[in-house]
Amino acid sequence: MANRKNTSNLHVPEPEFRPGDLPDYSSINLDKEQWPGKPDTLVDAFETESHATGLVRAMKLNGEVYGEWNPNLKPDVLIQGLRNMLLTRIVDKRMFAMQRQGKLSFYMKSIGEEAIAVATAMALRDSDMVFPTYRQQGILMTRGWPVLDLMNQCLSNKADKLEGKAIPICYSVREKGFYSISGNLGTQMIQAVGWAMACAYKGTDSIAAAFTGEGATAEGDFHYALNFASTYRAPVIINVVNNQWAISTFQGIAAGQSRSFASRGLGFGLASLRVDGNDFLAVYAAVKWAAERARKGGGATVIEHFTYRKEGHSTSDDPSAYRPKGEAEIWPFGDPIDRLKEHLIKLGEWSQERQDALIAELKAHVLETYKKAESMGTLATPTNINPATMFEQVFEEVPTHLRRQRQELGI
Amino acid sequence: MPQKNNEQMTQMNMIEAIRSAMDVKMSQDPDVLVFGEDVGYFGGVFRCTAGLQEKHGLHRCFDTPIAEGGIIGAAVGMGAYGLRPVVEIQFADYIYPAYDQICSEAARLRYRSNGEFTAPLTIRTPVGGGIHGGQTHSQSPEALFTHISGLKTIIPSNPYDAKGLLIKAIEDNDPVLFLEPKRLYNGPFSGDPHMPARNWSKHELGLVPEGHYTIDFEKARTHREGANLTILCYGTMVWVAEAAVEATGVDAEILDLRSLLPLDLDAIVKSVNKTGRCLILHEATRTSGFGAELIAEVQQHCFYALEKPIVRVTGWDTPYPHALEWEYFPGLERCSDAIVRIMED
Known about the structure:
The complex is a heterodimer. By secondary structure, chain A is an alpha/beta fold. Helices cover 37% and strands 8% of the residues of chain A. Chain A has helices spanning 49-53, 75-100, 114-123, 137-142, 147-155, 187-201, 220-231, 252-255, 264-267, 280-295, 327-330, 336-346, 352-374, 400-408, and strands at 129-131, 208-213, 236-242, 245-246, 249-250, 271-276, 301-306. A five-stranded parallel beta sheet of chain A has the order 1-2-3-7-6, sandwiched between helices. In chain A, helix 2 (75-100) crosses helix 3 (114-123). The longest helix of chain A has 26 residues, at 75-100. Chain B has a seven-stranded mixed beta sheet, sandwiched between helices. Chain B has helices spanning 14-28, 52-56, 68-81, 99-106, 109-112, 142-146, 159-171, 237-248, 265-275, 290-302, 325-328, 332-343; strands at 9-11, 32-36, 61-63, 84-88, 122-127, 152-154, 176-181, 207-209, 221-224, 229-233, 252-256, 259-261, 278-285, 311-315. The longest helix of chain B has 15 residues, at 14-28. The model of chain B has no long low-confidence stretch (mean pLDDT 97). Chain B is globular. In chain B, helix 3 packs parallel to helix 4 and helix 9 packs across helix 10 (290-302). Classes of the chains: A alpha/beta, B alpha/beta. The interface between A and B is large, with 45 and 47 residues.
């Protein structure tokens, strides 16, 4: 580190641990802390200060529930949540492996962050539009979008409903309330606010839910979103998934001296919660709380989901180049799937055997589905998308100049 | 002009015509709403939205924070939902914070979702100089937007066209950038600031139907028919061209392009093939300006009809200066000189 020494008065923050360091989080003991209780959903936004800087939790690392936030879900709902998270993880692993074989150009896993997408989708109504980033595929699993459609999109094959127009993972599934994912980070937040304003304008009780990573909260769009959401009391939830890493940049570069990302909402007069993002019950309860607040006319809530990106940013990234190996394993917030499994076992509703059987069932389903998808083409096979489609959907109708360019291409 | 015989006509300036377009659409369609900086109670710094809030309600015409990216981003979300937002960016010079939301989002949403989500919004913004606005109130950034696929760029030159094109823009299912030459709000402009100011009160293009009508995009308007020279122009420069043609006595054809993208290439080619000469006028800076695109198309399609090299008269490649505004502006004298030169054998 000698050559990286800061020899000036300019403060440049660095993460606690870098490659070669032995990460140590033993000072953090979440289960012994007192965490904020559950306020009324129409509480004054400024009374959520302790929620914005503390942590909303409903279960300990070992799956035991505690505090006021337990949503008391029925076992079959919890098992459904577990299943959705497992499906998400298994699909991720399959697609990652297939990218390594050259079947698709690119993929992004959400491993370790499944509770955030899945519990959010289960706490919302299916008619509530979500404005996701590329790490909320768990919403699609939860809302029952066929895995085959997801794979076809990633493979850009002839069954891809987007006709190969978008890179893998940039899904668009209006029928499942899943807004078209943009590769430009942060832009969807203010669009979600606009959608929510439209919900209010039309007098519906639908809401919108936006997602961003902690890194893109530095974009102006985040501030536009919070400002507009506050000004027009838009029925929207702004979810900040703080997984500690924006590609290679640690969260402190976006956070600066802030105590949390959630606390940014307070300055705009928005209810703000920081949630243990690896706690399925807490995420569910927090989103339910924020959704009820929005539907009752209480306006927007900022929710920071505190989690950890266990793997690389994408298939193009190698995290061992900038953070210590093994940090994911000792991250003191546990794994969302393990924690919900333990919770269900404690309730007497689940067992390791049932877990193993479910994993085997899902793996077989995913493998079979993948084979079906691959039979319709992959990036490695000659494209079977009609080139004329390239000129379509630029506008509602193909204008003269695009028609001429299409003719130039010989079609 | 394609007006109906029994249509009630009123003399309007361009501000009134633009306001009338929004008023007509707001009355017809509850999904049309108007917002932007100072557009609500006050009615906009150029008064284009005056009275709309009072007539249609606070929820249909309202003020926003000073955040152009926020205005467009919110409009994209509303448009995706199914509303038809008509937003105002107070000056085109202020549009850059919204560039990402316009180019990467509004213009690309349809394509990347293969038609599942669309952004049928209209972005109105005043452009051009001649009002002592300096470099932050005078720019003409049209070429920055015609370069973007998925976006339509429209620029009227008179009240009649402004209303018909704006209604068309609001009804269009794709995002439309609607540029308003602010120097023309109150009247045509010859390009010579020392000539007496004119207004729209007696001009035939200021005679505007009160109700609903549209003008198709991709249709240039022949402002003046002529045999010996084609002048391609839009916005304020249409009127400078007219004055320059009068001053030089050349029998020139003036095409008011109106719709820069999609462009009426057929009208351009037909005219240049007829006259054999082509002069291009725009107020924006020259390098990589829209004139470069026009030159490329004209030389490709009319090469064998051309008797002289194509000439363009534009703003200089400098920021819009304050004190030297008339040295920057491609005014009557520069345009007249160019016409004389291009007509020399």
